[in-house]
Amino acid sequence: MAEQGFTPPTSEWYHPAPELVANANVPNYEEVCAQARQDPQAFWAERAETLSWYKKWDTVLDDSNAPFYKWFVGGKTNMVLNALDRHVSGEKRNKLAFIWEGEDGAEVTLSYWRLWQEVNKFANVLRGLGVQKGDRVTIYMGRVPEIVIAMLACAKVGAPHSVVYGGFSEQALASRIEDAQSKVLLTCDGAWLRGKIVPLKDTVDEACSRSDIVKDVIVVKRTGQAINMQAGRDHWYHELMALPHAKPEAETEIMDAEDPLFILYTSGTTGKPKGVLHTHGGYQVYTSTTLSWAFDIKEEDRWWCAADPGWITGHSYIVYAPLILGATSILYEGAPTFPEPDRWWQLVAKYGISILYTAPTAIRGLMRFGEDYPDRHDLSSLRLLGSVGEPINPEAWRWYHRVIGKERCPIIDTWWQTETGGFMITPLPSVALKPGSATRPFPGIEVDIVDEDGNPVGVNEDGDLVIKTPWPSMIRTVYGDDERFISQYWQKYAAQGWYLAGDTARRDEDGYLWVIGRNDDVLKVSGYRLGTAEVESGLVSHSAVAESAVIGIPDELRGNVIYAYCILVAGAEGSDELEAELKAHVRHEVGPIAVPKQIEFVESLPKTRSGKIMRRVLKAQALGQPLGDLSTLED
Ligand code: PRX
Question: How many whole angstroms separate alpha carbon 629 and alpha carbon 439?
Answer without folding.
Answer: 33
